[in-house]
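#struct-pred
JK: can someone run the complex with iron/sulfur cluster? inputs below
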Amino acid sequence: MENKTLSGMSLSELQNVAYKLGMPQYAAKQIAAWLYTKQIFSISEMTNISKTFRDKLETEYELGRKHPIKKMVSKDGTVKYLFPTQNGHFIETVYIPTADRATLCVSSQVGCKMGCQFCMTGRQGFQAQLTAADILNQIYALPEFQKVTNIVFMGQGEPLDNIDNVLRACEILTAPYGLAWSPKRITVSTVGNLKGLKRFLNECQCNLAVSLHFPTSEQRLEFMPAEKAWPIAKVIEQLKEYEFCNGEHQWHEGAKQRRLSFEYIIFAGLNDSHRHRNAIVELLSGLDCRVNLIPFHSIPDSPFKAAPEQRMKEIRDYLTYKGVFSTLRASRGEDIMAACGLLTTKEKQNKTK
Ligand code: SF4
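RT: done, structure tokens with the ligand placed:
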């Protein structure tokens, strides 16, 4: 079926649209500029396109922009939005401003198939793939759109399980006809999805963040079922075929290599022992990467507990001392993260009532 949503189309697809409607050749670039560098919510706002062609566009296509329908604001300034998707689902997007940057955490799927036990989205199960328009909508319809400096694909879903649409969104965000961002400002996370990983590494220059959380296969199998299909040892093997930089000293906007990081949520008594620290060092030896240690945000009815801050600092210092550069992420928006995945769950329940 022909795609009738303009947002998410590449320049060549927009050229086909313009051709089909009898518009001048340069119109595709004008449409792309409206779609990907400005914040508009209707085709009628494309004011440098003639009224006749705007009307034709409006009759045949839709823009693909939807305002968020709910928001939750944390006392530290973090904002969580609930966006509707093109197909009637709901997804969460989190805006995290700090003194020197503003990071947007976007979702890539409605729900998730990966079933990580410590994750609210994992508990919801999988509902739908997001289209490229849905992914881009979280950026372009965000009230703080102009302030965003970095985008991370770390919201709901496993991005590499929706590889076509994630790659398309990354292309539009980095292409000269799109937002023209440096790929170093975008980070895509994965639980270790080997199926999508090779394509991502070959076709995209954005940074990669692997959700590690447990350094041994035994524990990953227990808490992260994806380990069964994609063992972490195989993921590391694959990563070693590519070049990265860890960002400790040499990373800057103009750096040649993309950045590789490993995300590690620290759970008290589960993955914070000395044995775990050494297992991380051993697993990552020979890779130019960094480890981001993340405090656990508790979720309802969960047996998982956050580790004390002192222990998290000790892990950070130990890893860095052993040559694995590590940072401890500040806890942000904990009061609204406590309900992570709840906005979508509630909205789904409202819809089915
Ligand atoms: S942690 Fe990520 S990959 Fe795992 S279930 Fe949650 S959304 Fe999916």
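RT: quick notes.
The chain has a mean pLDDT of 92.
Residues 296 and 306 are 5 Å apart (CA to CA).
JK: thanks, will look after standup
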